[in-house]
From TrEMBL:
InterPro entries: GH115, GH115_sf, Hex-like_dom2
UniProt xrefs under Gene3D superfamilies: Chitobiase/beta-hexosaminidase domain 2-like, Glycosyl hydrolase family 115
Repeat found in the keyword field: no
Annotated coiled-coil segments of the chain: none
Name of the protein this chain belongs to: Uncharacterized protein
Amino acid sequence: MEILSNKEFTISQGTKVVAQDLRNSVLKYACEILQRDVNKVTTEKDVDNEIYLTVDPQAPVDGDDFQIDLTSPDKVTVSSKTSLGVMYGALAISRDILKIDDFWYWMDTVAQVKKTIEWTNFDLHLPDYQTEYRGWFVNDELLLRGWNDHDSQQYIWQRVFETALRVGCNVIVPGTDVQSQVNRQPAKEFGLMIAQHHAEPLGAKMFAREYPDLEASFLKYPDLFRKLWRDAINEQKGTPTIYSLGFRGQGDKPFWEDDTSRKWDDKAIADVVNGVIKEQYDMIQELDPGAPMALNVYGELAGLYKKGLVDVPGDLIEIWADSGYGKMVSRRQGLDNPRSPLLDIPNPHNRKRGLYYHVAFHDLQASNFLGLLSNSPEFVSSELMKARSKGLDTLELVNTGNIKPHVLYLREVAKTWVKGYKARTNDEILDDYVKHYYSEHQKEIVSLYEDYWKSVVQYGTHSDETAGDELSPFLIRRIIKTWLSGKDKLSDAGWIVGDDSLADGVKKIDGMITPKLPNWEKLVVNLKKLMLDQNEQDAKTLYGDLYLSTLYQADGLKALHLVIQAYELSMAAKKDDDYLKPFLLADEAYHTMDEINFAQSHHKSTKWYDFYKNDGYDDMPLTAIKLRFLRHYLRTLGDTADEDDWERRFIKAPGDARVMTLWTIAREFSDDDLAKKLRERLIDKL
């Protein structure tokens, strides 16, 4: 292949991206993406020329690296030994030459448009990665599932795969349960290797879904389980796959919770798990020999491992998981919080090790689902480098959640995969990020991001046990349920209130959150002020990337505080009018929570206004409904059966309230109208 010494190539509307073989789906998508970006950033036609994408066994590079050469005045050739390498090469041109941002789709970055682009630097290569298998786990993807863009789910998932490749991923878990199976082939068509959810060993279908009338017991129905495993391997064999071995119950829980056929102790559990893993291992060796395999040392398996009860083949990659909040300790599950360190676990078999790491998490308790992680980027950077120092870097699966709320972290995590990365401070990470995504007010914006982590609530005794956006709606719904049911203890909340009664528990919670409320309120005000001064593009970015995350925390915690106040006053009520203040507090809590729903549906970018509608975890709409119900319950306790006494005594003119030739001349006020009028009339009295 001839290489020209005078290296200059003009990219214009006359540039066509072509591939050696469009039957190769990876090359086909690489062509489509690069051609789209060429057309996006140029406006005029210069000469007709081409960028040629080819898989070449003789390419002078190794692995998935790529070579870019100017082979004639009107032809650039991108070659690699692998299709994935060619894709990386096309994306490198998009990023480095056309200046298309890796997260363009999620951050709505505006490409700089030119008449033509003069390309002179062809020395582009894949970064030198420390992490061999670099993956995204698109998990808890409710927002993605409930949203369409370009009237299409397929388009969204193609952008997920594109973004993963842009940041250097070569592995993906493309969703959860049925979604992962639907997306498995499309992800492979982009060049990504498939990994599997720890609750879906071998990528097999769920037993309970295939056999809904049978007990999910391996001891009772071993052949049915084996058939599911064998079918899954046969479907994937010969394609890039990292098989996940293991055995959890249906729905990501301990298997013995579904199997009541016997009593289970650690030895009995380990015998089943070890036997199952050995069978799965042998099946893969038989049906797809040479395929990489991983063992998720997660949940109950971690406990068995530490007790020396796990006996599995030595050539598996062990995958260890963080706390869900980014700390390298075992995950808290309900009341069980051993915080077993992950970094000092002996490795007598010298197995390769990797990580399942969360920048988004759902535990329906205190984690971050809709918003930013409650621990800082500096914290994440430090923890990942500690893991690297202990050799947990062969494979890394990052839980991305729904991607858009977590770009700050996903971008930094991708940087950690490269050799030579050193742990960075918040200032370094945020300066880099803000300069990249904002054109003005950069110092102010960095300061506002930093204020976010200074404001988070610490719910546990350890500094990393911080509260994400799930805390407030979780607790509000449980307080209302417990209170209105006449029960004495919060359900599912022992992890935060211990064995306290409802009265003592809410007092404890309020003591945690109240000192932080002014910080959050101030941050919301400062963000609103800044967005008024920003240009339109920066304001859209800040709204989706920080303002909404802040609002989830600020309004959520405020609503929680108001509910607790309403509860405490209600419990002290001696007469009907004592429910006036709790009624108004519940009204304020309802409107505070509903501000979040309004803010989501009135996003500054019309692309994202309906992105949040399928949120079934934080479920702010349901939380607002519960608060509205609480408000009416308190009115029922304090007002008359006809709901007109508060109106007559506190709102109507005295003469109208006393003269009753007609019982009434209008229907009762709605709760909304009543609360507004009461607040107006009683503002100095309550």
